[in-house]
Design goal:
Structural class: alpha+beta
Shape: globular
Radius of gyration: 19 Å
Oligomer: single chain
Number of helices: 11
Distance between the termini: 50 Å
Order of helices and strands: EHEHEEEHHHHHHEEEEEEEEEHHH
Length: 289
């Protein structure tokens, strides 16, 4: 195995472009190192990106959004008061990845590129309309987060490409987001269903919404019909019922030891209702209890 510690993205991309066999980037390492230890994966080339300038930075953009470095750990996001105030759903989703020890290392980008359908950070990122900068031998492109995973363990990244930044849009006024998951145990388990919701209000009426579901399909699913069910409403009982129906209808899960198709489909609707209520309260300026 060839191990590299580049000091710039250009160097990292050049190494990846010339590499043969299996290549992995190391930022937090909470997926790739575990896979290596379990003999699931042995990279031919391992590129440690933690020495690249800016990869640990959380920066407010001129437009009022956020740029988050690819090696920013979940614990660092949780401790960032302004980011948490703008995007509490994204932060709380990332905060659910593993134990306290894992939180000191895990990253949103690693969670995204591992491409697990049950990833916690990804539904919240999709709901927030997050995007990433992808850089490779042929230049740089901006990609919506929902377009990165293409299947379990697979991404849309080409050979030699890597994600070099995460972007969250400006929060703006009267907006709120939330993420919830169902797990069999009380903590440190894999989501049976996850749901991220982001919305905006005009008065008490929802004018914008995005609903994303995890662990109910081969990739995280952005559900336009679920968003449409609550746009133009004050999240009354009828809207919540329509939201649950749309969320459940969007599911195409599998049966496994953690949950059946029937159970996952039902829970998706329940979580969508609960997450929507939290996001709605946040958009109204209510503090979490």
């Amino acid at each position: 195995m060839h191990y590299h510690t580049p000091t710039s993205f250009d160097d990292a991309i050049a190494i990846a472009a010339e590499a043969t066999g299996t290549t992995r980037f190391l930022a937090g390492g909470t997926d790739v190192l575990v896979q290596m230890r379990a003999d699931i994966l042995t990279p031919d080339t391992l590129i440690n990106v933690k020495g690249i300038s800016g990869v640990k930075d959380i920066t407010r953009t001129p437009e009022g959004g956020w740029q988050i470095g690819i090696a920013v750990a979940g614990a660092e996001m949780t401790e960032h008061a302004e980011l948490t105030r703008d995007w509490p759903g994204v932060v709380e989703a990332t905060d659910l990845i593993g134990s306290t020890q894992i939180q000191g290392r895990c990253t949103m980008v690693g969670n995204l590129c591992n491409a697990s359908p049950a990833a916690d950070a990804v539904p919240a990122m999709v709901a927030a309309e997050a995007s990433v900068t992808v850089t490779g031998p042929n230049g740089t492109r901006q990609v919506a987060v929902e377009d990165i995973p293409t299947g379990p363990g697979k991404t849309s990244l080409d050979a030699g490409e890597m994600i070099t930044a995460v972007h969250l849009p400006p929060r703006g006024t009267n907006g709120g987001d939330a993420y919830l998951r169902f797990i069999p145990r009380t903590e440190m388990d894999i989501a049976v269903v996850g749901c991220g919701i982001n919305l905006r209000l005009d008065g008490d009426t929802i004018t914008e919404a995005r609903v994303a579901l995890g662990a109910v399909a081969p990739t995280v699913r952005l559900v336009a019909e679920a968003a449409e069910a609550i746009i133009g409403t004050t999240l009354d009982d009828a809207a919540l019922a329509a939201l649950a129906d749309a969320a459940s209808a969007a599911c195409s899960p599998i049966d496994d030891k953690r949950g059946t198709v029937k159970f996952r489909t039902h829970v998706a609707g329940v979580l969508a209702q609960r997450a929507a209520k939290i996001a709605y309260a946040r958009a109204q300026g209510e503090k979490d209890s």
